[in-house]
């Protein structure tokens, strides 16, 4: 089924400004975006029914501890983050939530994590005495468009959140079906609206983790809602050197069920995310004595054939997969897939299947007849190689994870795509070099 689109394309922010009172709208991605976070990646030609939007209150914080590497680093934290703080300049032991701090103090204000406690995140326990002081600079609302992909002419029940900070993403409003009268298009819209009655949208949806910004993306004149995070992460990865932390109990890793690869890397440019469940929230315990980046890519040339790219959102601070912010109403007997389709499509799209979380799975190393070109390659050498292969946007992440030639030998295409956000072509380009040293001429 080919669709007709309006000639004007909008950024997500422009779209909301123009159509916030005219939702829902069917849109097509006319300029894609390969972001550093999986939920920030959209394909050209992807068709989404934008139903509503959500707003989440967050604070912008700056690290103030004299750590040579992380001092001055900027974060955004959900206003309802389940951790308490104390005022840095106060001798009183009074504890505040972020919301209480913002409501009772003029910004900026410097705060510390409550001492002599521990924060438990998954299998790790982090003493709060080692966490840095923060300067709370401002508050802002992070906004997402909420919609659903069209799969074979029907709504996929999983919600796609479209962040407004993706300024390079372009959307065009779909105005009809190519070669079909307006009456057919209107019947189709009515059918989609009927399917959407089985869905519930969380208008307060937002990422429950801490956003880490690029060092040069925050400045005095920044409009924080328009600044794209480098990654979303949790306490362990945001504020500390994870190599210095002691794991407690068995450590489970993300595993790609197709490639069988396991990884325990820092946050990748393509981490998927989801809303946390209560069990995932950081737990604070009394503890008397504590124990001793990438560039975005754009793509163009849309195909007006109906496509779908249904997405599953995951939580980067734990290892289980969960459908995103819209859920089917339990009392609705007719699921979207059981409803009659008004218009059949030519596109045959397989539903997305979740990756499984498996423990103790062995990583399959790269098999190669000659790996001498990798064995002595340093981290710096590998960064130069990425430039030659036009993969320089991954240099920062490879450097942060201390990837050299010997480690690269253990990679495969699945790991590159899942953990680092490579496209299929980019993964092939790098793996071709890994296997036989090939550099495109």
Automatic annotation (TrEMBL):
Residue runs in coiled coils: none
Bias (Polar residues) ranges: 256-275, 291-320, 345-355
Gene3D superfamilies to which the protein is assigned, alphabetical: Transcription Factor, Ets-1
Domain of life: Eukaryota
Region (Disordered) location: 256-355
Compositionally biased tracts (Basic and acidic residues): 330-344
PANTHER family: GRB2-ASSOCIATED AND REGULATOR OF MAPK PROTEIN FAMILY MEMBER, SERRANO, ISOFORM F
Protein's name in the database: SAM domain-containing protein
Source species of the chain: Potamilus streckersoni
């Amino acid at each position: 089924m080919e669709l007709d689109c309006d000639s004007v394309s909008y950024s997500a922010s422009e779209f909301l400004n123009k159509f916030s009172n005219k939702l829902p709208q069917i849109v097509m991605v006319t300029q894609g975006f390969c972001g550093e976070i999986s939920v920030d990646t959209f394909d050209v030609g992807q068709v989404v029914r934008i139903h509503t939007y959500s707003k989440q209150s967050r604070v912008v914080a700056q690290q103030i501890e004299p750590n040579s590497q992380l001092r001055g680093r900027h974060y955004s934290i959900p206003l309802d983050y389940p951790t308490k703080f104390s005022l840095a300049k106060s001798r009183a032991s009074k504890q505040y939530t972020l919301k209480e701090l913002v409501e009772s103090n003029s910004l900026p204000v410097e705060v510390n994590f409550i001492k002599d406690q521990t924060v438990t995140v998954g299998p790790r326990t982090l003493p709060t005495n080692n966490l840095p002081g923060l300067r709370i600079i401002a508050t802002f609302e992070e906004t997402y468009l909420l919609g659903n992909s069209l799969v074979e002419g029907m709504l996929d029940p999983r919600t796609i959140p479209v962040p407004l900070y993706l300024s390079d993403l372009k959307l065009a409003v779909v105005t009809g079906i190519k070669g079909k009268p307006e009456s057919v298009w209107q019947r189709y819209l009515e059918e989609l609206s009927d399917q959407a009655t089985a869905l519930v949208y969380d208008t307060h949806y937002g990422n429950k983790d801490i956003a880490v910004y690029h060092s040069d993306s925050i400045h005095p004149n920044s409009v924080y809602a328009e600044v794209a995070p480098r990654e979303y992460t949790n306490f362990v990865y945001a504020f500390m050197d994870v190599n210095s932390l002691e794991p407690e109990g068995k450590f489970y890793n993300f595993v790609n069920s197709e490639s069988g690869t396991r990884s325990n890397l820092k946050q990748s440019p393509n981490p998927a995310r989801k809303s946390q469940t209560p069990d995932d929230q950081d737990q604070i315990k009394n503890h008397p004595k504590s124990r001793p980046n990438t560039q975005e890519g754009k793509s163009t040339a849309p195909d007006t054939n109906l496509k779908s790219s249904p997405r599953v959102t995951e939580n980067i601070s734990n290892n289980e997969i969960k459908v995103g912010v819209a859920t089917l109403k339990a009392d609705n007997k007719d699921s979207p897939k059981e409803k009659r389709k008004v218009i059949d499509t030519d596109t045959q799209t397989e539903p997305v299947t979740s990756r499984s979380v498996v423990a103790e799975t062995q990583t399959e190393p790269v098999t190669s007849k000659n790996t001498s070109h990798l064995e002595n390659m340093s981290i710096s050498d590998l960064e130069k190689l990425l430039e030659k292969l036009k993969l320089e946007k991954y240099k920062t992440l490879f450097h942060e994870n201390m990837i050299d030639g010997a480690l690269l030998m253990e990679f495969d295409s699945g790991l590159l795509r899942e953990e680092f956000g490579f496209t299929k072509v980019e993964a092939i380009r790098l793996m071709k070099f890994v296997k036989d040293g090939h550099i495109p001429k």
